[in-house]
Specification:
The protein is of the alpha/beta class and about 140 residues long. Helices cover about 55% and strands about 15% of the residues. A six-stranded mixed sheet has the order 3-2-1-4-6-5, sandwiched between helices.
Length: about 140
Amino acid sequence: MEVVLDTNVVISATINPKGPPAEIIRRWRAQSFTWVSSADLFTELKRIVHSPEIKRFLAWDEDEVVDFLATVSQIARIVTPARTLHLIPSDPADNRVLEAAIEAGADYIVSGDKALLSLGACEGIPVITPVGFLSILQSSLPQD
């Protein structure tokens, strides 16, 4: 299963180690799904996680952040979108999420962003909340 994680989901995981976004990152580390990203999304993640506004809220120390970013760059599937979208003019960064998902043929886009969630889907790719995605992951586990 290939999934694009919006940057807001990842940042939420770094701030609250007990919330649904943090559980999504734990599931990714356990190889429950493939995280799909792009150079633009990865650059955005690095910029935000190192920003003073966010840094003071992080539950992770600097070494954990550096290790996490290194792991993402090595393990996540990085795509280069062939198309530039303008579906959400109010926040062009949201379009980068959609572009990565379309390029990858992702199964899901996971976001907490209202503009993305209001789309419902983009070219057949569902846009769902972190809680919704955890429910899907739970239902895909082998049953005893």
